[in-house]
Task: structure prediction
Amino acid sequence: MPVLTTSISGWGRYPVQTCELERPERYADLRLDAACLIARGQGRSYGDAALNENGRVLLTGRVNRLLDFDMEQGILRAEAGATLAEILAAIVPQGWFLPVTPGTKFVSLGGCVAADVHGKNHHHDGSFGAHVLALEMILADGSRVTCSPAENGELFWATVGGMGLTGIIGEVTLKLIPIKNSSMMVRHHSAGSLEQLFGLMQDAAIDDRYTVAWIDSMASGSRLGRGVVMCGHHASMQEAPLDSRAKPARARNIPRDFPAWALNPLSIGAFNALYYQREGGKREPFLSDYLPYFYPLDAIANWNRMYGKQGFVQYQCVIPDATAFDGIKALLQELSGSRRPSFLAVLKRLGAQGKGLLSFPMAGYTLALDLPIRDDGLFTLLNKLDEIVLQHGGRVYLAKDARLSAETFRAMYPRYEQWLAIKNKFDPQNRFSSSLSRRLGIGGTHG
Result:
């Protein structure tokens, strides 16, 4: 297969690196023709997880067939390059839905496994890997093996959340959940402070299958952490008619980069005030199609251009329940005091830690921030945020990371040594390597 050497980046557009790109046309063409490689689906991880500077990147976008769909049991088998958008188009009309979904449908099935993605329902249903029944993988020696929780279990749980470093995920078998229609029943609750926000998120009377909070990152003082808690569930037949499925809205496009000054404290502050009043003012339950509910930013093509040519960093961390309030408060205070506003700030509850050895979630609260890159001062701020997260027993999400240190990574991921033993067993020469893994020293130096 031809190889193209070019510059690419993740969704945050930072960093930009030169990589060798190889694109197989079908599953049978997935071969290990390079000594150092990493698979890449849709390139929606934010930092350097799917980059391999001066090495091979295997593009799996065309390895995307839906192979088998048991519509009675809700079991789907598909090639790892299939996107959630392609899967949803096939399963929703048949009354099925993804058990877990991140905030965009333009990600690959293999990427969801590799990052062990979580959604608004993690506190009830866990992360993506908990619903994967089996994987077919290509290992470093070229062999193809099946793994599952019961078969080759150590390889399975090293791969779930393993950032593509144990082998190439070729096929995924996934258990779906039933739905009655494509509508969501949603209710919003406004909170004037972080204390009120946490109180709402811990209130079992308003919690729902899916719960997420938007936070006004510009608020300070007594209004620090004010926001809107958004709760929802798949609508029943009584709540919504079967024919309520909305036609997909045509995506708006951002055709060029915003100027560096466009997202500033004044513009983001004005937007946040408007958004708080609009969304917090929705007092009654309402129906929403699943697309804008789960994937609001997918309605804007190339929305990452809003952050300008230098790109942005998405900083996502989780802090355990016992220290969550104090930790989140300290993070928001540091952010507010920096005058480096986050255009998006999202808080979610997470449930118990899963079996994926490098998986991100743990029981607690996760905060995600989008921070435009203007100067090196941003990275000084992010180092301070790392210190706060560590002090409160938390960790940073590798699928969003672009600048964490190796030392901090090891402190945040105590099961790394257990994962490394499995990695060395199946990939002793560290053939599967990425820019992220080398930056963090994951798996050692490429041999």
